[in-house]
Amino acid sequence: MWPRLIASKILKKRVGSNNFVADYPSDTETWIELPSLDQNFPSFNSDSCMVLDQEETQNYKVFVGTWNVGGVEPTDDLIIDDWLETCNMSCDVYVCGFQEVVPLRAANVFGGENKKITMRWNSIIREALNKRNRSEEKCKDVKSTGDDDDELGELPKYRCIISKQMVGIMISVWIRSDLRSFIRNPSVSCVGCGLMGCLGNKGSVSVRFRLHETSFCFVCSHLASGGRGGDEKYRNSNAAEILSRTIFPKGPSLDLPRKILDHDRVVWLGDLNYRISLPEYATRVLVDKGEWTALLENDQVTFIEK
């Protein structure tokens, strides 16, 4: 009990509580402004937000991607355009989840946020989303969104509204800059499920915000590994811990959701580590034969649903 309690306090201190980085300044102390940004953006306080008529419905397209990078730092020439499908630029919101952005050794597990690695990944995402030199042959039918910050015919600009790292788990959320006035109440909640049941080598980083009047929650997680029979119990336990322990800070609105499942839209992403409960050779044979029903019958996620 005592070791877990001490480790939990260390994690909370190292992770930085509810702080996160973002492109936009804010009046709240839970924001940390990223460097080299435009200074004329409005802050995310309630006074600067425009609210649509409750009966009006807006449709938005969201990209969600997850990548376990295996503890390897990104190279200077890393290009992620294909992953983000930036040629189409048809998404309004981009959510990028990462696992093992740092090697999972003791110094990193017990250490604080690696701001250098976070900034490198965000820089790569920014470059991919805001690149202006795409060829017309590769990127056809791209239309202007009418963003005030962009000239006619240019691709939309994207800005980071939330970026948070806990040990190897990182999530970064980007929006079209013309949507900035409709974003409210961004916040984060971290849950460690790793060593001693609480350290951040496994667990989740969850983010929430409101777009117009709809609340969104994105849960980026890295669950317990292990390919032996019964190891899925640890993954199930991690997921249950994340659901029960994720609590977002109170906001100015009394009806602001604080638990994951209380949000209007929830997306769970990450390296969940669920797998096919069959020997590798048997799995490969079924794949070669296209026996998808047999594979689904042995899918650990299917077991959970039952």
From TrEMBL:
Keywords linked to the UniProt accession: Hydrolase
Q: Does the keyword Hydrolase apply?
A: yes
Hydrolase recorded as keyword: yes
**Which InterPro entries does the record match to this protein?**
Endo/exonu/phosph_ase_sf, IP5P_plant, IPPc
Where does the Inositol polyphosphate-related phosphatase domain lie?
58-305
Which GO molecular function, any one, fits this protein according to its record?
inositol-polyphosphate 5-phosphatase activity
GO BP annotations of the record are: phosphatidylinositol dephosphorylation
- Family membership, please give it: Belongs to the inositol polyphosphate 5-phosphatase family.
PANTHER family listed in its UniProt record: TYPE IV INOSITOL POLYPHOSPHATE 5-PHOSPHATASE 9
Protein name per its UniProtKB record: OLC1v1033126C1
